[in-house]
Structure formats: C-alpha cells, structure tokens
Records
---
Amino acid sequence: MFAAEPPVVPRDALPAGEMDPELAYRIVRDELMLDGNARLNLATFVTTWMEPQADRLMADCFDKNMIDKDEYPRTAALEERCVRMLAELWHAPEPGDAPGCSTTGSSEACMLAGLALKRRWQQARRAAGLPADRPNLVMGSNVQVCWEKFAAYWDVEARLVPMEGDVYHLTPDRAVERCDENTIGVVAVLGSTYDGSYEPVADICTALDALRDRDGLDIPVHVDGASGAMIAPFCDPDLRWDFRLPRVASVNTSGHKYGLVYPGVGWVVWRDRDGLPEDLVFRVNYLGGDMPTFALNFSRPGAQVAAQYYTFLRLGFDGYRRVQGYCREVARGLADRIAALGPFELITHGDQLPVFACTLRPEATGYSVFDVAAHLRERGWLVPAYTFPENREDIQALRFVVRNGMTHDLADLLAGDLDRSLHELRRQATPLRGADSASFDHGARRPHRR
C-alpha cells in the first residue's frame, strides 16, 4: 500500500485523476498524525473523548441534515427534548414552553441571543416613538471574541468594561455605569475563558434592578454560559445565575464543551416566548412541511444533536454531577501541585470552572510563561500562554483546562513534566520567548469606538 503512493501528492490543486480510497485515506491519516494529541490539549474547552457507543451513534447520523425536520422528524424531536431538558435545568418558569434551539456552537448561540436583545430593544423604542439607531451592549473585556464579532456584524456598540487591578471580569457597579437608554442588554459570563472564574450574575441583576427603580431603565441580562452553564447546575446547585433571576432573558451553552459532546453543537434557550421576537423566526416549506427556523445556519449536522441527547440520557443529573465534580477535583489538585512547585502564582484555583490560570512570580526572571508553554509542548502537552486584555496586558498567564478524560494520573504526569521543564528553564539567563511568540490568542482587542 505504501509503495503504491505516488512520488508527489497534490496539496493545493485538485488531482487530475482518481485514487484508491484506502490510499487516499492513508495519505490524509498520515498527515493528521502530526497533529497534537487531543487528550493532552489543556488549551481547549472542547470535548476530546466520548464513549464508543456515542461514536457509533454519530456515525449513524452523519448523513442527517438537522434543518430537514420533515424528513428526519425523530432527530428534530431529540433537539426539542434537549431544549426542554436545558430549560428545566436552568429553571425556566415553563420549561415546556421556553423557546430554544441547537446551534453549531456558542458563537452562533450568542449571535442569536444578541439579535433577540437588539430586536426587543428596537421594538420597544419604536413603540415609544424614540430613535432606535444607536444600540449598545455592555460586557466585560474578558468576553469571548464572538461578542465583539456580534457587535461588528450587527452594528451594535460594544461597551467593553476593561479589567482593573485584581478584578478580571465584569462587576455590578461598572456594568451599571455604562448602561443608558440605548443599552440592549448586559452580558454576564459564567466562566471566563481567561481564568475560569464566574461573573457575579445575581449581583449584576440586583444592580440593574436598582437602576430600573431609579432611572426607569429595564435592561435584560444574557448569561454566556458556554462552559459554566453545564458546570454550575451540578457543582454549584445553590448558585443563582439562571432563570431563577427574573432579569435573565436568555442563556447559551456549548454542548461540545462541558456538555460532553464532540465539536459542533451549542444551545440557546430563552426564558419565555416574549424573549424571542416572532419576526426573527422564519418559516420554510420547500423541504416538505411548514418548519420554523431561527438559527443562523441552515443545513447543520444532526449527529451532534443525537450525541447530546445520548449523553443526557446516558448520564442523567447524577452522572453529570459525578463527571463535572471529578473534573473540578482534578483541577484543584493540579492547581495545588503547580503552586507547590514554587515559581507560579495562582490567579484562580479551579474551584469554579475546572479551569485555572497562573502567572510567574517576579523572582522568576530567566524565563517566561511562553518558554514554559514551549517546553511543555516538547513533551506533548498543549498549555496556552497569553496576555490579559487592555488595562492588564502586563499579566502573562498559563491556563489549564481540565475536561472529562483528564485523570489524576495524567495530572500527576503533567506536574512531573512541568517540574522537569523548570529544571531546564532555570539554566536560562533571560527569557527566550515573549508575547509575540504566543500561538494562543483569546481574540481580545481594544473596545470599539464611535
């Protein structure tokens, strides 16, 4: 088989002729062997392991188009069940009536939630005879880049609240300071990608309640729970962040992060039907039947939705609590091990998301976090090194994401490799790599100006 491979394989142009399928498979597979090991990737929040039964189920559904609900009614039914399960998990007042849908990920889910906020604000302004041409959205500078994309794509001013001192996410007082009559909503992040911390959603809602009572501004909150919305219900059941807070209008999550499904699925759910303006729902009949759709994408794979339903069915509440609790336990243990090595100072401890960040102490002058990340990469570990956004760009950090599949034993191996890397790095007189060498970027930019 290997001897049958042609001397030159076209990489950037369509080959002139056909190729044996097994040979084509091997050529592609050989190149993919040069990728990193997904299980050792502590940069990504995305699920890198599922059970063999889920693999088989997804293979059974690869040919199903999620949008074609008339042709694949049972796949459509699984999507609806998942929405109801999430609405109940997040304490919607009427889970069976809460609108929502699957998406290709949290980025699309955030776009939909943002569009709903903008349209509701526009409708209210026009009904009151007021201008509706300068919407803004308030959020911390630690938001995922999809929110800046939303602002750019749909002409909304992104009022990014910069980090300040040792506060690395949005706070109630600083959120309210930036709200006015043109604010379509406030985004609260349940699990920052920078350090894994929760933003104080309940306190933000309380501050906005006071703003309404004082100035008459009734501003809704969207919770970006890309990661935390599938952690908090199981590990922090008493934490009030979801639809138990009347000001929370919508919630999104990534099924492919701590929802424990392979990449390609997110979810957005609204508190009730008032949260999703009817004119954002489109109806098509050219696939057979009358089908409402309000996702940005049209054709989408059904396999990830089937896998999400399988995982909900397979684990149930107790199973998710066990898996997520174990991840947090591993994260906290690994954080303690890394802190004990000496040169690292923890920013977070893995006790909210099973994610923590650390920086180097001032006395570690001979190497940078970027040097540490490069040494770990040589041993197969992918640990991101990056700088924080505007106002705290002086912070250079490493972040460790613990997902299902990261065991105590693997964490011990990582800590051991990190210790060995430090022995080598201490021989350096000065850092060899700076922020310009980082391969990881949160996408944070300066706030948009108008």
---
Amino acid sequence: MDKKLLALVLASFLFFLFFNTPDSHAASNDYIRHPPRQLVATPHQGSKSDPQQVHVSLAGKDHMRISWVTDDKNVESKVEYGKQPEKYNAVATGENTEYEYFFYTSGTIHHVKIGPLEPATTYYYRCGGQGQEFSFKTPPATFPIEFAVVGDLGQTEWTVSTLAHVGSEDYDVFLLPGDLSYADFQQPRWDSFGRLVEPYASRRPWMVTEGNHEVEMIPIIYPHGFKAYNARWKMPFEESGSTSNLYYSFDVAGIHILMLGSYAEFDHDSAQYRWLVEDLAKVDRKKTPWVVALLHAPWYNTNSAHHGEGESMRKAMEEVLYKARVDVVFAGHVHAYERFTRIYDKKADPCGPVYITIGDGGNREGLAMKFKEPGSPLSLYREPSFGHARLRMLDETRAHWSWHRNNDTDAYVADEVWLESLSTNAACWDTTTPTKDEL
C-alpha cells in the first residue's frame, strides 16, 4: 500500500477511535465522568512573522529558554532582552526546527537560551527582532518560593477558568505533570494550545513532563511518538545529564525537582532508571533540602479511572525515590484530586513521599467521578473537581500545600496541609541515597 494512502487510512481510523469513544485512554469504562465544558479555539491574531505560542522554561543555572513559533520561516532565532521595557542590552541566538505529521507542517519552532540572569528579577524581551514585547520574572535564589501545580490541562472552558485562577495570584514556577494540549493527532490543536497558554507561559517558567496524550505514536509511520511534544516543549534534559526530553531534573531555590517519564522505558536496565539513580546521587540535602518528583500515571490511586496503570513503574522506581527521601510525588492522568499520606511499598511510612494526584486542570474528557469504596486509610482527601494547587516552600523545613477547587468565579481552598522536609528528619537517614551499583 502507498505510504500516503496508508497514512490516510490510519488517520481516519484514529479520528474515529479518539473522537467517538467517551475515553479512549481509560483502563475501563466502569466510572462516570462529569460532562466537560466546550473546547476553545485560540487563533493567531498577528502576522506570519510575529511570535506566537511564546513560553519560557528554566534551562540550567541562571538561564532560561525562550520558545516560540512563527509562520514565516525566515525569522531569525534570536531574543533581545533587558531589565527595562524596550531597552535591550543583551541578545542571544538559538536554534529552530519544524516537523511534519501526515499532511500537517508546523511553523518554525524557535528555542533560544538566554542568560546568565539575576534571580527574582523582571526581564523584558522580544522574539525574532519584531512583534510585541514580553516579560518574565526569574525565580528567587532562596526561600520562600511558590509553585503552581496543574495536571491534564487541555483547552476547554474549564482550562480557561483554571488558568485565570492560577493567574489571579502570583507564583514563581508552573509545574505540569503531563497531558498538555490534548491534540491527539490533530496537530493544529497544538498551535491553539500554545496560543491559549501564552499569556501565562510567557511570564513564568513552565516546566512540563509528558502524559499519554503526548505520545501520538503510529506504528511504522511514527513509531517513536512524541514528535510534536519534543519539537515544541524542549525542556532542560541536556542540562541535567539526561539523553531524553521525556525525563530530566532541575534545581531552583533549594529544591531538586525530578520530571519523570511514565511513557519512556523505566525498568532497571533502562536509560531513565540509570539516569535517575545517578541524578539523585548528586543531590546534597544540606544544600538542597527539598526533593520533589512529577510523573503522569499515579503510583497510588483509589479512583476507578486508570487504576493500576502506574504499578509497573512504581515497582521499578519506588525504592529509588524512597531511599533518596523524596518529599512529594505529583501525578496526573486521573481526572480528579487525591492526596495520600506518606507511603512506601503500599504502607504508611513516615520516611516515604506524600503522593498527590492532580489531574484536574480542564481536560476535554471530563472528571473521573467514581472512587473505589470503601476508601483506603492511606488516602486522606479525594474529590472529583476541576482545580489547581499551590506549593509554597517557606524555608528549608516547612512547606504549605493547598488545592483550590474551581468554583466558577472563585478558586476555593478545599484541601491544605503543612509539609515537613524529610531532610530534617534524622530518623529517616539510617540509609543513604542508593548508588548505581547498589541498585
């Protein structure tokens, strides 16, 4: 069969599969979803050479990466920046790429790394030498620092509500544990998503990891998947010693953050596993008292949706995180909120991480309404509502977690808890971070 004809047949099949079933990625259909709100479309209002889909991310010590798209392929990949509006005393150049997916060809995707930058400072910047001026604020170098945490974001009316709630109060870094655009093979939805989040992602660093909706794998034609995700959302994997954009780490203000890949190989012989062990072995908890991990498919989950889908990754990697005394593990995938106690190996353990599922950003599939009964004593709070969360590290020992339910006009704090860093718990340090040889 001709390759183009095969592609057309597969595209038709995938369109039917993904847009005529209630939940194409669900482990089962024995749970009920609250009806989602309508999708939103975000068109480009500028010229072909104007930057669009602008977003910034942390890119190693004292540096940021500016990413954007232009329809004009002749626009230079450069960023001019400075500390005063319209006064740019520095310029950096970078790289650009584009990709094809069936009959879709992306615009030119630019990535430019700038710095060194000062902490807690507002910078003004212009992409490609033209178009509007943007600005961002760098994170602080020391505590306190605040993260906005949102999973399974999508681009619906609920997404708009969630982002408005996030933007109503200041924060330093945005964390997203997978499922960004819900493009699901329809590549123009990646463009629409980038334009939707630009007002937020251009002002604060967005750090993301992949979910199942980023895979977009098609046997034979696109066997490796993640083509759009890797091209558009370049994260600092090289800066953290990783060989894949699907998993990496970064440091900010005394916190080491692991962005793990639920859909990359993770068994003991995998590159991700080896990288994780080596990465954690470098962390000095006296200098970096907090360690946080994000991944997509939750290891602990009492919802009927996607139950057990993170189990194989848990079995492979849980011990590594436990011995490294990771403080908190965030996941998405399940379209509801759930907070667990500290756990290791399916038991309450004061030296294990707190596990939190926050897959409630605003996806097009709706909420996972059905939790298993009776509930588990390990699960301390659970609710199927759209919302977002904030993690505020006050100092080396204390952090405040709050989950904000979307209530149309107001974000209501429905769950909150104080956390203590495991680095200060002497009883948890009888063992040390495992070495590569030990695991």
---
Amino acid sequence: MLKATTRHGFWCECWTQRLDGRRPPALFGSFDAYSAVEANNWVATILRTISPALDTAASQAAWTRLQNDRIDTRRALLRREPWTVSVTHVRTRITRTGRPAMFLPLAHRQGRELPACADDFKPRTTD
C-alpha cells in the first residue's frame, strides 16, 4: 500500500502577455520548488537570464528587482504567501508568479505490475 504523504512547496509559473490585447496571456514555463530558497532562486535565475535580451528600461527594472526587492520576495515565501514579479519589455509583460502548494508523491511504475485495465486503452487509429 502506498503511503500518501504531502510535501509543502511552491508552484512557480512564468507568463508572457502582449500588452496590445490581441492574444491572451501564455504560460511559458513552470517549476515546482520545494523550499522558499528554491523558489526565490528560480526568480533570480530567470531574471538574470533574460535581462541581457531586454531593452534598457526593462533590464534596469529586472536588476532593481534582483537587488532591492529580493528580500521582500523571500519574506513573502517564508510566510507562505503568493508573490508576483513582472518586467515589461517593449509591448510584452513577463510575469513570474509563485504560490504555496502541497505536492503529492507520484507512484513509480517500475518493477510493479500494472492493473489489468491498463492494456484496454489503445490509441485511436485514423483510417
């Protein structure tokens, strides 16, 4: 029998949104952080990675967030509060979000026999 234990962490996402309103926001990527430090480092790493490609104003905003606002982000994470970091480049807003989450463990299927119904589901064939 599986022991279902949950683990506290943070669900982090990166969204992009065109400011002209022609397209809805798009999920660019996500990350499951198991500690406040991991979530905070994810934000910092992403901001450092994209800042050279941003225009001057957006790059300066990213570095300001890294230097001045990182402590506030860490405090929010330690209080298990949701947080958001946004940078606008030309006509695109790039937003990182994080929120407290409970993660359930996934069962490993290696070395275990699958239930009998597992072979009942076959992919559709197109004729």
